[in-house]
Design brief:
five-stranded mixed beta sheet, Alpha-Beta Plaits, 16 helices, about 500 residues, alpha+beta, 21 strands
Length: about 500
């Protein structure tokens, strides 16, 4: 069987050349293909992609399957606990190494009323005018350039990066350029909800997913917008703290000064979770985090200006975690990601809220344990006098306990970290140098989370994230976008990576 596969691969490669592509060709081929690449991205973005909607998952899976089949990939749906992923495979020769690409296809839910366009799934083209304000550009006028932006849900996170890779495969196919290694592509349709079935899927399909390296097509570039490789990601854990007040919302005139408002006591707890410098006050929160001199050198190699960064973010000072932005990413973080109590805006009313809901997230590093940190937060809430219950309070519980609450948490993606000086770093740095010279950045970790740990622990392969989108891309928020220059540079990046030999090939 192996001889037959080798024979077939030899026949296939006689119609393709495994030549090294120059930077000049990479730039020209990308420019020539750019109208098609942009049109394909617009088409892909038009498919709604909420990972909790099974119909939307299927629609995106069908589109992806068709696109990858057209590129000559063998495709296979793998379903775990009712949730599908798509695996595409292109084998060049059995003696060549294999790279597994991870693509996120789903996006965050949308509230169309908060977007500056009619439909978040109908891509809009914009440019900034001399006053720095966004102006719409008609697609038919074809006035876009590298500093034009495409606005749509998942433009950056992460259909843009996915289409950059697919476009690179298409260009190589059109130019009859053979790949330098075997390729597998895994498409995940539930990343934004934590990819809950992914660990089991990986464990059940180790042979199908077997590879030498894992390349992750996800995440934004460094704040400088230079092409970026990131060698790790923080994990995530989330919690919901529901604080109970009176049985029903009460009139603030009739019951103010008599019925306690649950917001005041909860606000005291929230305010004490961090000290005046921004450090989390939970016991042992930063325990075990150490940065070696070698890793410190990688962090120091990234030039950053705190004044410029603060101005861009619109803040006067930063939290005092680590010595600057890069070091801050090496530690776990605690965030209040949402608070709800009664009504605001045009719906505001003079009442004492019946409950307060606080949504919390923690970003985790390999040295931290999500369960331990969440239990520490739970303990803090209890120490502040809250009696925790599992459901709505009974009349008896309301009579006995002045502070009633419910606290639940969920552990999501685990953190991972890949050495920054191994073979995978050499391969990707070589590919980046070809296109960008020394104008690219190596980051030890990203602040966000990716469901990659199951691949590393189960398949025992190193992973690196290839970052394409602009840092000002509004991911997870209204008006998400991708700069066209970043998208095209992403295609160039993928072309160079696909044309760079893997160690052993």
């Amino acid at each position: 069987m192996k001889k037959k596969l080798l024979f077939l691969s030899i026949i296939a490669t006689t119609f393709c050349s495994a030549q090294d592509i120059s930077k000049k060709k990479i730039e020209k081929w990308t420019a020539d293909y750019s109208p098609k690449a942009i049109q394909n991205l617009r088409e892909f973005l038009s498919i709604p992609n909420n990972g909790l909607d099974s119909i939307q998952i299927q629609n995106n899976l069908s589109w992806s399957k068709s696109a990858l089949k057209d590129l000559g990939f063998a495709v296979k749906e793998i379903t775990t606990q009712g949730v599908p992923v798509l695996l595409a495979e292109k084998n060049i020769a059995p003696n060549l190494p294999t790279v597994l690409f991870y693509l996120q296809i789903d996006g965050q839910p949308v509230d169309p009323s908060q977007w500056d366009q009619e439909n978040p799934y109908r891509a809009v083209l914009k440019i900034k005018n001399e006053e720095g304000e966004w102006e719409h550009v008609d697609w038919t006028e074809k006035k876009w350039d590298k500093d034009s932006y495409i606005f749509a849900r998942s433009a950056s996170d992460s259909k843009g990066p996915a289409m950059a890779l697919i476009s690179a495969f298409q260009i190589l196919k059109d130019k009859s350029i053979a790949l330098k290694y075997n390729s597998k592509i895994l498409l995940d349709f539930q990343e934004e909800v934590g990819s809950p079935t992914l660990p089991q899927m990986v464990a059940n399909n180790k042979d199908l997913l077997k590879a030498d390296y894992l390349f992750i097509m996800d995440g934004a570039r460094h704040l400088s917008n230079k092409p970026t490789l990131t060698f790790g990601a923080r994990g995530i854990a989330t919690a919901t703290w529901r604080v109970f007040g009176p049985k029903v919302p009460l009139h603030s005139g009739q019951y103010g000064n008599y019925a306690p408002n649950p917001v005041f006591e909860a606000a005291k707890v929230i305010g004490q979770l961090k000290d005046a410098t921004g450090k989390v006050t939970l016991e042992g929160f930063y325990e075990g985090v150490k940065i070696s001199s070698k890793d410190q050198a990688f962090l120091n190699a990234i030039e950053e200006n705190e004044i410029v960064t603060n101005k861009r973010l619109g803040i006067s000072k930063r939290d005092a975690i680590g010595n600057g932005y890069q070091e801050s990413l090496q530690y776990p973080s605690l965030n209040i990601r949402g608070i709800k109590a009664a009504w605001v805006g045009t719906q505001v009313r003079t009442i004492i809220p019946s409950e307060l809901i606080v949504e919390i997230d923690m970003r985790l590093v390999p040295e931290s344990d999500g369960k331990t940190l969440m239990e520490s937060l739970k303990k803090r809430i209890q120490e502040e006098g809250y009696y925790l219950i599992d459901s709505l309070p009974t009349d008896q519980q309301r009579a006995l306990h002045p502070k009633l609450a419910n606290f639940t948490y969920k552990l999501g993606s685990k953190p991972f970290r890949t050495p920054m000086d191994g073979p995978i770093a050499t391969l990707l740095s070589t590919a980046m140098k070809k296109v960008f010279g020394d104008e690219f950045i190596l980051m030890r970790t990203t602040g966000g989370s990716q469901p990659i740990a199951p691949f590393i622990s189960t398949l025992d392969i190193p992973a690196v994230s290839i970052r394409i989108p602009n840092p000002d891309n509004n991911i997870h928020s209204p008006n998400e976008n991708i700069r066209i220059g970043n998208y095209l540079e992403g295609i160039m990046t993928c072309l160079s990576i696909l044309n760079t030999s893997v160690e052993g090939s």
